[in-house]
Amino acid sequence: xxxxxPELALDLLYQEADRIKMLIKNQQNSLCxxxxxxxxxxxxxQMYGLSRQVSFSIRLGIISNEMGQQLLSDLERxxxxxxxxxxxxxKTITKGKEV
Length: 99
Hints:
The protein is mostly helical. About 85% of the residues lie in helices and about 0% in strands. It starts with 5 loop residues before the first helix and ends with a helix.
């Protein structure tokens, strides 16, 4: 049985993180992102799944704890940025309707 290289494992984990980001980016209805509890639960579930994959990879010694934590930290930062963009967009739309 061949072993998995740390580079391959990290690449696969980053692909999963990118998939989660695309899930949010592809959501056309920004009001759903900011107000839909079901959508929040989907994202939370995806994040939890990725965190478990990262934890498993760390325990196997395929990636370091620092690499795994950095991946999760980067993803959380990117998701927060996406949510902030949606919030600002909704604020602008709401202001436009009040005028």
